[in-house]
Design a protein that fits this description.
By secondary structure, this protein is α+β, with helices and mostly antiparallel strands. Strands 1, 2, 3, 4, 5, 6, 7, 8, 11 and 12 form a 10-stranded antiparallel sheet that branches. It has a 6-stranded parallel sheet with strand order 17-14-13-18-19-20, with helices on both faces. A two-stranded antiparallel sheet has the order 9-10. β9 and β10 form a beta hairpin. α3 runs antiparallel to α4, α5 runs parallel beside α10 and α12 runs antiparallel to α13. The radius of gyration is 28 Å and the shape is globular.
Length: about 750
């Protein structure tokens, strides 16, 4: 029996019609009062029965976008994004031949051997065998998104790069990642996070490859294999995965003390961010900027999230790793799908590119700007905002974009140059070398997500995966056979020209400057700048991590190093480990930097997730009023009911969709909880107790005396009793602005 022929209408017209319908439906669903939440796996809801009528591929969801089409040599493509997607209603071979069966191998009789001539079998298995590429040694687990950077013109006086011209909009792709774990590890482990941004400027691609911590473990790239080998799982058992709580890591950092500053940041709440949307980013290194007059300045680069810098508490991070190891990537994708586009301001700290009173260059207030284990406090050099980035598109294909994107700190544009930071210098080699292995050859820049949005005429030829159609007979310089093309650009033509630097009385040696020798004073600066709550978290983190080590010598040695940072911290950790307190040693006298603390300011509540706890007897009208109010304030309501489906009876407008059941919910998803009715259920008891322990805001339409079993009272900080749905958000939003109710007593310490 032959299959029904597809609709003879033009396939492109059908796709456009379908995409418009899906977009309209999603817009209606996400409007205030709608009850569809982010997370739908496809652009259309599926049928219960298996489809049997041929249909063209569904369009992407409206929140998704791919790399803007460009040719392998950087020319804007006339093809639409849809041209890159699969085409047609029928399954085909890679060469386009339609297939009638993909469930059975071609055999000599039903019980006979499989035939070598089965091209479809061999092609299908061959491609499957090679679906994976080597994962990154570090930053293997990541999440990506598309967006746009808008410059405000404030950088014009220090940098001539076109990306910073006032009003200039530049497409970007950002990849967030953990450092230690493999691709299958959890998002919420205690770890440094990568924050890498690819700017597709019209002067070439600029990659800003940074982290969520402004300093690094090492001062020189030659130590990078050492710190990674130490931090990775033990080579005999391949455990523990994606964490630093083991002997080899602490053995290394307690011996290689330049790692102490970064390690302290990692043990702070910065090591367990609440969301990629609520995470700072740093360029780590010092870069050199050049303006139109040829003048130079040194800068450190910052990303400041509009939602503030927030973290999970430790128990919450552990629960999240088990309940939802994809928590951060899901949070990012859902926010973009819901239209709560995350934003960051790009800022720079500017330093004069001169020599100090001792004749030493790249110094500022006694801080060596070439030392990647040092920061410059914002009180000494304020961060000047030069533009804003908004992430507004999810990837269409994780492998094609997030996995194959290739960053490199040597991808620069005119006006931005590197410095002699020895860690940065090593990265300039390492990233390029890595791409050759991961992406199987030198042409990784021609993968669509990596293609420049500027003309490319590089004279490079051939190699694995060459996709460009090179013409001309003279890929060399100088030449006359191709009319001398390509020509050299001058400074007035926008050439990428490195800043000339004088190197006087230099000799070849394996040593660091004396200014690199201070490994503790900035760790003391960071720790003493934290609030008491944050200091408690740091002590608990060290106690947990070192408590996972086997060798007592490693623990003792690290506690002794903590004494050089803060003696009280060392004593607290030693007591938790059952070790004698270390001797008191002199520590640096520092001026604290309030900018280093995450606590004490207020932030927007955009994109926050609000749990709404109901029972089967709750009034749908009240719940719908709450839903609409939360949507209207640019937050996401998630109704938690006893079972799935809808709350209430009658027409859809009179009922409410249940987003989570008592079985599928967990407190980690919610930034605040609204209790409409109090269930008598053990799983909701856990929900309420965790919200309380994790210092999250709660509003209740149920009298507070009903919570006696939870230890809550009318004066419990962050628990507000209201009489009506209209009173909920005015009571909750001031609490959400601080992220947590930090003044609430910790039941573990009461």
């Amino acid at each position: 029996m032959s299959a029904k022929k597809p609709d003879p209408r033009n396939a492109a017209e059908k796709l456009v019609d379908k995409a418009e319908k899906v977009a309209d439906d999603l817009t209606d669903a996400l409007s205030p009062g709608g009850d569809v939440v982010p997370g739908a796996p496809g652009s259309e809801p599926p049928s219960v029965d298996e489809p049997t009528e041929p249909t063209d591929p569904l369009p992407p969801k409206p929140d998704q976008k791919g790399a803007t089409p460009h040719s392998p040599t950087g020319a804007p493509s006339k093809d639409s994004e849809d041209a890159q997607r699969q085409q047609g209603a029928y399954l085909t071979t890679a060469q386009g031949a339609r297939l009638s069966d993909t469930d059975h191998s071609l055999k000599a009789g039903r019980r006979g051997p499989v035939l070598l001539q089965d091209h479809h079998l061999r092609e299908k298995i061959m491609h499957f065998d090679h679906e994976r590429i080597p994962e990154r040694v570090v930053h293997a687990r990541g999440a990506g998104a598309h967006g746009v950077f808008r410059a405000n013109g404030a950088a014009a006086s220090v940098c001539k790069a076109g990306v910073f011209a006032e009003g200039k909009e530049t497409e970007v792709f950002v990849r967030f990642s953990t450092v230690l774990g493999n691709r299958g590890s959890a998002d919420t482990v205690r770890d440094t996070r990568g924050f890498a941004t690819k700017f597709y400027t019209d002067e070439g691609t600029w990659d800003l490859v940074g982290n969520n911590i402004p300093v690094f473990f090492i001062q020189d790239a030659i130590k990078f294999p050492d710190v990674v080998h130490a931090a990775k799982p033990h080579p005999d058992r391949e455990i523990p995965q994606a964490q630093s709580a083991h002997d080899t890591f602490w053995d290394f950092v307690s011996l290689h003390t330049e790692a102490q500053h970064h390690t302290l940041w990692n043990m702070s709440d910065r090591g367990i961010p609440r969301s990629y949307r609520m995470m700072e980013g740093f360029g780590v290194h010092t870069f050199r900027l050049i303006n139109d007059a040829g003048e130079t300045n040194l800068v450190k680069i910052h990303w400041k999230p509009h939602l503030g810098v927030h973290s999970q508490v430790w128990e919450e991070a552990q629960i999240t790793g088990g309940m939802d190891p994809d928590f951060h990537r899901r949070d990012l994708a859902d926010a973009i799908e819901a239209g709560a586009f995350p934003k960051w301001d790009l800022g720079i700290q500017v330093f004069p590119d001169t020599v100090d009173e001792n004749g030493v260059s790249e110094m500022f207030h006694g801080i060596d700007l070439l030392d990647p284990t040092k920061i410059v406090p914002e009180e000494l050099a304020p961060v000047q905002v030069i533009g804003t980035m908004e992430l507004n598109g999810n990837v269409k294909n994780f492998f094609a974009e997030t996995e194959q994107v290739a960053f490199h700190p040597g991808h620069l544009v005119p006006g931005i140059d590197v410095t002699n930071d020895p860690l940065l210098q090593g990265r300039l080699f390492s990233y390029l070398d890595t791409q050759l292995t991961r992406l199987a050859g030198p042409n990784f820049g021609q993968i669509p997500i990596n293609r420049p949005h500027a003309p490319v005429n590089d004279m490079l030829r051939d190699g694995f995966h060459q996709q460009a159609d090179h013409v001309g007979v003279a890929p060399y310089q100088p030449n006359s056979l191709d009319g001398g093309c390509p020509f050299m650009a001058g400074t007035t033509d926008g050439a990428l020209v490195e800043v000339a630097q004088e190197i006087a009385d230099a000799q070849i040696e394996r040593r660091s400057p004396a200014t690199f020798d201070d490994h503790f004073s900035q760790a003391t600066l960071f720790y003493t700048s934290l609030t008491e709550v944050e200091k408690e978290h740091v002590a608990e983190a060290y106690t947990f991590e070192l408590g996972k080590c086997y060798e007592e010598a490693v623990k003792v040695r690290q506690v002794e190093k903590l004494a050089h940072i803060d003696h009280d911290l060392a004593v607290t950790v030693a007591a938790g480990l059952g070790l004698p307190a270390p001797a008191k040693v002199p520590v640096a006298e520092v001026v604290t930097s309030p900018a280093l603390s995450q606590i004490g300011r207020e932030w927007p509540s955009d994109g926050r997730q609000i749990g709404i706890l109901v029972t089967e007897n709750s009034d749908p009208a009240v719940v719908k009023e709450l839903e609409q109010a939360v949507f209207g304030d640019d937050m996401v309501p998630l109704v938690i009911g006893p079972v799935g489906g809808r709350l209430g009876e009658g027409e859809p407008d009179a009922t409410v969709a249940v987003s989570r059941t008592y079985l599928t919910q967990r407190s980690i998803e919610f930034d605040a909880l609204v209790v409409v009715d109090l269930p008598a259920h053990p799983r909701t008891d856990i929900l309420i107790s965790e919200m309380f322990r994790h210092k999250k805001a709660m509003a209740t339409l149920v009298p507070v005396d009903r919570y006696v079993d939870f230890g809550l009272a009318s004066d419990t900080p962050g628990v507000v009793a209201v009489d009506a749905a209209a009173d909920v958000l005015p009571a909750l939003k001031p609490l959400l602005a601080a992220h947590r109710v930090w003044e609430r007593p910790d039941p573990a310490r009461v």
